[in-house]
Amino acid sequence: MAVAHRACFVAGFLFILLLPGCEARIHKLTLKNETRHTIDLNNFGFYADGTLDVHLHSLRVPETLVDYSKSPVGFSLSRSRVNGVLSYTAEESETCPLTLKKSTNDEPLILFLIDIKKQSVNVTAMGKQDNILIAKEKVEADKGQKKVKRASGEQSKNPDKPTVLPKQAEKRSDDKKSEQIAQNPKAEAVNVPGTFNLSSRNQLTLDLGEIHGTYNFSFRMVFGSEAEGLYSLKFHYCQNREPGIDRAYSFAVEVTEKNPDGYLSAAEIPLSRLYLYMAGVFFTAALVWVYNLMKHSYSVFKIHWLMAALAFTKSTSLVFHSINYYFINTEGHPIEGWAVMYYITHLLKGALLFITLALIGTGWAFVKYILSDKEKKIFMIVIPLQVLSLIPLQVLANVAYIIIESTEEGSSEYYVWKEILFLVDLICCGAILFPVVWSIRHLQEASSTDGKAAMNLEKLKLFRHYYVMIVCYIYFTRIIAILLKITMPFRWQWCYEFLVEVSTLIFFVLTGYKFRPASNNPYLQLPQDEDDVENDEVVTESGALEGISKVKKTSNGRERQKESTL
């Protein structure tokens, strides 16, 4: 237990350190000396009137070594058919998306090509568009400057005319321009962002600002009713796709995504209510389980109370998860206090789950009373190793989970920790299957060597059912649910979380039913000693002790009851 407490303390401390960097649906990403050719900035499901704000700051790229007309750099915004599948085909994805000239389907695809030399951003909209772009358009050189050059040329030819200084010419030009704007209210000022309907205008040029050798620009996208869907925003540096080329670049970007009802993606909006409802269901199931333990207190083991603690912890974790999503939807980022509580309860729930499954799978909590001395020694070595190995694995899995939640998708660390989480999760799943398989093998050998075959076969059948239950639980929550997530429409992808929670509830209920505290449960029954059975028969047949009662141990080995020997 000391190891578990230290592990929880370390994990909680890491959570507190990592949470300040979590920006939820308001993303801030800074990359320095990056060499990846494609960076996945984010995926988000937009409803009608949803908005996407992108602010690029401090873009620094090699200016002399790269021909950006052939190897462009910029952003792509594409609508996915399903989660993770972009609008362009697999053949097209082998080349840089910024080099596409036309779309092969009607899915919206918007390209932002950054031109360093001309200090502009060329926007190309492909596919069926129902989006509105709000950005600062690139304005041509001021006509007043051309007039200054003409005036200076004429002055050289006609020295009798008074000289007009360039600043005076600019002032006159600005005055003239302000008069034109006053006369025509629809005329746009240079620094005022314009509004462009991409369904009618699929080509335009935006302004690219420069500050001390770094470049910046920003835009806002408003999605129409026909443009709803799951969108992927990516940054591309096409030259690094060529083998052997790793040009370093740096930039900082801030991305804010919002739907009309809040900052959550379309698939995440129902999650707050879903987690709250499921928390109530798990809490009700935990109360029913505690009532059952109190009703059959004569055959209750410590593992039964551990199972009750797991159900209550799961319910509490879901409550904090629901609160966390509520604040993300309203504020755009989680409240640190609620987020810390969620991650701590999530860690405890994961540790309790795998430890409970391991203890049930080995049968140590129930059948240790009938083990021989040799078997007990084996158990004393195997069980602590399994439990102690699960605790650090669960801590590592939860640390990886919180890092993934608090790290931006575009950072390189995000994918490293995502792979670590996947690997550790598989190891934990195998770790809980191993003791079940070991117990099945032990019962198979015991049923063929001793005289208690009937009882051992009953337990063997129960363990086989338990093994099938664990495999089905892993299969549904790790495979079926993921397949459902990538095939469902973007607005129904919350069904993935619903399936995971329902599968967990069914697994908890079946596990509690199989190993419930009851006198007729074969898992909890201890076989009667053969010598006692033989002596019982002899005494009964002789009739010498007729009417005398015999004391017999019950299934839990702790209480005794009287049984007539008639």
From TrEMBL:
Pfam families the record matches: GOST_TM
Signal peptide start-end: 1-24
Main location: membrane
Transmembrane segment boundaries: 274-293, 305-328, 340-366, 378-404, 416-438, 466-486, 498-515
Region Disordered: start-end pairs: 144-186
Keywords: Membrane, Signal, Transmembrane, Transmembrane helix
Compartments reported by the entry: Membrane
Methyltransferase as UniProt keyword: no
InterPro entries assigned: GOST_TM, GPR107/GPR108-like
One GO CC annotation: membrane
Membrane topology: Multi-pass membrane protein
Basic and acidic residues: bias regions: 168-179
Domain GOST seven transmembrane: 270-522
Name of the protein this chain belongs to: GOST seven transmembrane domain-containing protein
Organism: Oreochromis aureus (Israeli tilapia)
